Amino acid sequence: MIHHIYVIRGSDGKIIYHKSYGAIKVDESLVSVFLSAISSFSGAMNEGEIKSVASGRLKFVYTGSKGLIFVFCADLEDDELGLRERLKRARDSFIEDFYIKLATWDGNPTVFEPYTQVLEKILMGIIKIALVGFGGVGKTTLLNLMRGSDIPIEYNPTIAIDVKRLDGLSSRYEIIIWDFAGQERYTPLWTFLLRGTNIVLLVTDSTVENVVSTKKVYLKVIKSRKTNILTYCLANKQDLPRAMKPKLIERLLGIPTYEMVAINPTFHENIISIIRHAIEEWSQTVAKEEEE
After folding, report:
1. What is d(CA 278, CA 272) in angstroms, rounded to the nearest whole number?
2. What does R_g of the chain's alpha carbons equal in angstroms?
């Protein structure tokens, strides 16, 4: 979890905003030393550059912009990519909405209290959904279908990863879709990219060969994660003659499976409905765990 968030003025190292989360105590002397060090070499940072450094069980992720330094102090095992994405958004939100106040700031910390509400949404309201499957099964086409974008005519393989925001699905959460590259050379990245994932949409092309390989490779990786990830299968390309029926795929994979034809725009509402259902199930699971 994120323990502390700081906004620091690089010119003199003054902390202009600080927010503490959680009841777990961290070594404040260690934090103080790090903050002093980072303010001293802030001038060497490139505009917008994001860096991280580990110390003991803590991780400091930081970035600079317009003479300010933004710092997340988090647990060492926290998802690095997720922290960087949230830090970038926290930085950009502050610059856009509060940077102008610095020109007349008299040192009163209450001036930046409204920034806390912005942070709450950025930190607490994100659901990460991963599109996972072998290359050519239609993951990127499904992403376009979700977003109501034009369906590409030619197949262009995803390089490593594509990250998109999906708007209008939840008033409480911000939905981020991660489209994982399925080519074999990206295999070592799969476990790393699954960190911080809440929901997996496992995509197959509904052929026997692909479904069997998906079970051996992807489902094995997903189930090896220590944390529970809600997993659903999208049985794509159901319009093709060799397509296995979703119920049969569901029996083979052991996870809920839904019919899909990514190139057919009429399936837009279908996939939106599936995602809404997944979000609701995830929310109920989280609420139950919090009660326990």
Report:
1. 10
2. 22
Tell me the pairing of strands 68-75 and 2-9: antiparallel
The reply to whether 117 and 141 lie within a common domain is no
Look at residue 265 and give its three-state secondary structure. Answer: helix
Whole-angstrom Cα distance, residue 206 to residue 236?
6
Alpha-carbon gap, residue 37 to 13, rounded angstroms:
9
Q: What average pLDDT score do residues 174-191 get?
A: 72
What span, in angstroms and rounded, lies between the C-alpha atoms of 8 and 64? 9
| Most confident segment among 4-8, 164-168, 177-181 | 4-8
* Least trusted range by pLDDT, from 25-29, 52-56, 245-249, 274-278: 25-29
pLDDT at res. 232: 95
pLDDT given at position 32: 62
Query: Which residues partner with 60 through β-bridges?
Result: 53, 73
Domain containing residue 268:
126-291
* Residues written for the chain: 292
What does the alpha-carbon distance between residue 55 and residue 36 come to, in Å, rounded to a whole number? 15
The structural domain count of the chain equals: 2
In which band, very low, low, confident or very high, does the pLDDT at 201 lie, cut at 50, 70 and 90?
very high
* Residue 101 sits in the same domain as residue 184: no
Confidence (pTM): 0.60
Domain stops at, among 101, 124, 147 = 124
CATH number at residue 57: 3.30.450.50
Q: Give the chain's count of helices (H) and strands (E).
A: 9, 11
Q: What is the pLDDT of residues 78-110, one digit of tens each?
A: 777 778 888 998 999 999 999 999 989 888 888
CA separation for the pair 75, 143 (Å, rounded):
32
- If asked whether residues 258 and 136 sit together in one domain, one would say yes
Residue 263 and residue 141 share a domain: yes
